[in-house]
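Below is how a single chain appears once it has passed through the pipeline. First comes the sequence as given, then the structure the pipeline wrote out for it. We keep one example in the README because the format questions we get most often are answered faster by looking than by reading.
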Amino acid sequence: MVDMRFAKGHGTENDFVILPDPDGELELTKEDVRSLCDRRAGIGGDGVLRVVRTRVLGETLAPAARTAERAEWFMDYRNADGSIAEMCGNGVRVFARYLLHVGLVDSDRFEIGTRDGAKGVTVEANGDITIDMGRVERQGVSSAGLARGVVHGAQISVGNPHLACEIDEPVADLDLSRPPELDADDFPEGANVELYNRVAPGVLDMRVYERGSGETRSCGTGIVATAAAATPEGQSATWRVRVLGGECTVELDASGARLSGPAAIVAEGETSLI
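Resulting structure:
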C-alpha cells in the first residue's frame, strides 16, 4: 500500500477530495472514490477531483469535451458514489483554487478542461473565482416526487441534467432525506433536483439533492440551473443564490452563464485509502 498525496477543498461548503495525478497513472475505481468520500472511515467529501494533464487523456475524451484539449489541466470529477459526472460548478472553482495554491498556474485568467469542454476561469480582486459556464439549455418541464408530494419545474442542462423547481413553502422546511423520484423518460441518467424560493428582488434561496451524492450544502451547476429557471427565457439577469453553505452570484445573458463565489483549500496530506 503506497501513500498518495491529497488535498481537501470546498466551495460554499460543497467539499471535495483533490488527487494530484498529472501523468494519468492513477486507476481510480468506484470503490476508491466511495472510500475517500466516506465521512466516517475516509477523508469525507461530496466528490473527488482528479488533477490530470489534459494531453495524457488523448482519445478517451468524449466529443463534448473536445474543447478541453486547449486547457493544460483537466478536472476528472467523480460523485461520492463513484459515478462519473459531466460537470461541477463548485468543483471547477475549487479545482482552480488548487491549481493556484500549488503553483500549477500563475495567471488570474486561464481555462480548465472538463467533460463539458473547456471552462474559462477569472480570479476576482476580492478572491472569488468566476467560471464561464457556457450556454444553459432549457429542455422542457418535468416533475419529481418528494416526501412532501410532487413538485414541477424546468428541465435544464448546464453540461449535466437538472430539474429546477420553484416552490411556495420555505426551502428550510423541506425533507430531502430520500432521493427524489424522477421520470426515467425525461432523465434516463438521473438528475440533480433544485428547490427554490424567490425571497427578494434578485435573490433566491435554494436546496439541492445531487445525483450520486445526496443532499449537499451547495451545487454550482444547480445554482446556475436555478437562476436560469427563475429568468424569463431570452432575458438577461443577475441573481444572488443562497444555499446552505453560503452564497454565489450568477450572471445570465445571451452569451451564457457566469458563476462567481468563494473557494478554499482547507487541508493537505497523505492517504493510503487508494
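DSSP finds three helices and 18 strands in the chain.

See the next section for the split statistics.
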